[in-house]
Structure formats: C-alpha cells, structure tokens
C-alpha cells in the first residue's frame, strides 16, 4: 500500500533531510546506482532515471541481506487496487508510484522483478498519458505489461546463482616408514657395524 505518511515517517527515521538523503544514496550505491542523489527536502521530487532503477532492481533481485529479502517480500504483497500494470504478471515482485507535475499531469510508474522459466527480468516503466490522468496511466501500464508478457521469452534475463568456493586442496600425508623398511634399515646398519668392528679386531 502506498502511504505518504508512512513514507515520511520512514524518511524521518533516517535522520531527516541531508542525513536521510545520504542514507538512501548509500543504499543506492551499494546496489550499483552511483548516479542518483536524493533531494534532502521533498525527496519524492528527486530524479531517478529508468536505467538506474533497472540497475538497482536487478541487484535487489539477487541480494541476500535481511533488508533486501524483506523488501522483496513486501513487493509480493501489493493491495489489489494498486496491482495494475506489472501486477498482472504471475509471481511478479513490484511497486508503483504516481503523482502530478506542476501542470497537473500524472506520471505513473512501476519497478518490478519478473520471473519466467527459472530466470528474472528487472523492469522499470514510466508513462505520462496524453490526457494526463491517473486512470489513463494505469491503463497504459496494463498494455505495456501485456506486451512484455507476449515477448517474455525474448526479454533480457538473469539468474541469481552464487559462485561456489573453490575446493581446498587436501594436503598429502607425510610418508611413514613401514615396519619392514625400518627393520631392514636397522639390520643393514647392524651388519655394517659388525664388519667394521671385526676388521678393527683383526688389525
């Protein structure tokens, strides 16, 4: 559920203004987006390009931290009246946003992680409909999602495989003399000493 009051409370919990902006920028940077910087005041008016949204979302899809896992879980539980667009894709994790510009025209957008055939596609969509209405914007996102679904096999996709660590080499055991070898060495040494002693006695 989109809730401006909850979003503001979350923003303020990070310290407010510059502290909050720096905290959000740091998260974006850890997920590969080092070009976006949120505004300390009115952060909802910050510019976040679609390309950087896709970069961030693709990293989010495979991140294993508690925070990333929690965010993905919430993205799977969007209320029905906000499940337009990418919400029509089976199993999608997504989130939408919308708002009017200075002239009252709505921008309607979504980011999402779309599953298909054991792989993932990260998507970011934004539309400004000709009439500027919210309803027309959501209808356009429905059409875009339908197009994506029809071409799902051709979409760029990725997996979240984790590289396995290289096996540690097994140290070779130190050679241990066998009893027979020890006995043979001892016997040979004894015979050599006997010969030397006998020679000395004869001289």
Keywords:
three-stranded antiparallel beta sheet; globular; 3 strands; 14% strand; 203 residues; alpha+beta; 6 helices; disordered C terminus
Structure, briefly:
This protein has 203 residues and is an alpha+beta fold.
Cα radius of gyration in angstroms: 34 Å
Spatial shape: globular
Distance between the termini: 110 Å
Oligomer: single chain
As residue ranges, the low-confidence spans are 176-203
Task: Provide the spatial order of strands within the biggest beta sheet.
Answer: 1-2-3
Write down the secondary-structure element order.
Answer: HHHHEEEHH
Structural overview:
This protein has 6 helices and 3 strands. The longest helix is centred in the C-terminal third of the chain and has 24 residues, at 179-202. Strands 1-2-3 form a 3-stranded antiparallel β-sheet. The protein is 43% helix and 14% strand. With 203 residues, it is an alpha+beta fold. It starts with a helix and ends with a helix.
